Prior knowledge:
Blueprint: E1 6-14, H1 16-25, H2 36-41, H3 51-66, E2 71-79, E3 87-99, E4 102-110, E5 115-124
Antiparallel strand pairs: 1-3, 2-5, 3-4, 4-5
Amino acid sequence: MKAGDVLPPLEIEVTRTLIVAGALASRDYQDVHHDPELARRKGSPDIFMNILTTNGLVGRYLTDWFGPTTVLHRVAIRLGAPNHPGDTMVLRGRVEEVDGDTAVVRVTGDNGVGRHVTGTITLTVPGSGSESGSESGAGIR
């Protein structure tokens, strides 16, 4: 793992089920996340994904790539264009900084409307740092 490493993109189909399940799992009962008619009355063309679901998907993207021992220490994300059912979000990442086993990764997620999420995540991948002799990225998929 080194600064400048680019993670492969991850495409996520944004389904109605994903949006509603994510809202329910995070106890976000706002109608804009499960009721299309009420979402339209509030100015949205349909229901849309909540920030906690997006946060979970960003975490999944990173732990899928860096491995199951990855620890996310700080996740700072900002939402932009909403994720609506029927769209696809593409997550992309780039390692910005590395200090031993700890890295800062910049993540973006785009959909058909525009940029859905921008974030900076600080994570640790035990055993991947230079002090462990793993300059080649061992432990990193």
